[in-house]
Design a protein that fits this description.
The chain is mainly alpha-helical. It is built from six helices and no strands. The longest helix has 32 residues. It is elongated, with a radius of gyration of 17 Å. The relative contact order is 0.18.
Length: 154
């Protein structure tokens, strides 16, 4: 049973969690497109721009939260996920981490460097998974139990 402060934190933090999860999914979607040979999988892909905007909003929300003692681990995992997603977005957009500089025309037409983007996305997903295990109400999709998971091994 959660105390009142933790319940309030949980309810207020769901959107942050969902937004960070959505950012990870958007980046992963563009990575799949890149690996499939999609010519549009470049740093100026609209989904990456949308992910960057959603990430900024989610980070602002997460950083504005003051977690109660019982939710500090959850909050820390959200912050770490946000940092990992920032690194993934910086790699995808061809920016220096922390830079607000625009992507140059030459960089925006080059293919994505998936090897630099995938590790921080995986790390962010792991932090989100950890956050989902700390408090109730933050479900993650378990792909290994999805209907198509068995087909991979067949």
């Amino acid at each position: 049973m959660l105390d009142e402060a933790t319940t309030i934190y949980t309810l207020e933090s769901r959107k942050c969690f969902e937004d960070l999860r959505r950012v990870a999914a958007q980046i992963a979607g563009v990575l799949v497109l890149a690996e499939a040979g999609g010519k549009s999988a470049t740093p100026d892909h609209p989904m990456l721009k949308a992910a960057a905007q959603l990430h900024r909003e989610a980070v602002d929300q997460v950083r504005s939260r003051q977690p109660p003692v019982a939710a500090r681990a959850h909050h820390e995992f959200l912050l770490r996920a946000a940092d990992s997603l920032a690194a993934a977005l910086a790699a995808a957009l061809g920016l220096q981490l922390g830079s607000a500089a625009a992507v140059s025309t030459a960089a925006s037409s080059r293919p994505l460097q998936t090897a630099a983007i995938l590790p921080p996305v995986r790390e962010a997903y792991e932090y989100l998974q950890r956050a989902s295990n700390v408090l109730p109400g933050f479900p993650m999709v378990a792909f290994e139990q999805a209907c198509c998971a068995g087909h991979v091994h067949a």
